[in-house]
Amino acid sequence: MLGEARLGAATVSGLLSRTYFRDAGDAIRRTGLAGADMTEVGAVLARQSAELTARGRPVDGTIDDLLDG
């Protein structure tokens, strides 16, 4: 589960920064999440949630929220 959370957070980081990764391992290493524990991953996810909300794409939004804009 922790590995999946790291990969999800790394993927979102790449999407937000328009960074391309070669594979899952590359994404996790380059975003600095390779040694992250659940507390650190949770902090990253909270920052990403705030960033997406600021961009008008709230994490807990509806499908209509996602498609509007």
Description of the molecule:
With 69 residues, this protein is mainly α. The chain contains four helices and no strands. It has helices spanning 2-17, 24-30, 38-54, 63-67. Helix 1 (2-17) runs parallel beside helix 3. The radius of gyration is 13 Å and the shape is globular. The protein starts with a helix and ends with a helix.
Q: How are the secondary structure elements laid out?
A:
Layout: H1 2-17, H2 24-30, H3 38-54, H4 63-67
Helix pairs in contact: 1-2, 1-3
Put simply, the count of helices is: 4
Distance linking N and C termini: 33 Å
- The 3D shape can be described as globular
Largest sheet: none
Assess the beta-strand content as a share of residues. Answer: under 5%
Helix content: 55-70%
Radius of gyration: 13 Å
Average predicted confidence as pLDDT = 90
Instruction: List low-pLDDT spans.
Output: none
Spell out the helices and strands N to C. Answer: HHHH
Please state the structural category: mainly alpha
Number of strands: 0
Question: Can you describe this structure in just a few lines?
Answer:
Helix content is 65%, strand content 0%.
Q: Which key terms come to mind for this protein?
A:
69 residues; mainly alpha; globular
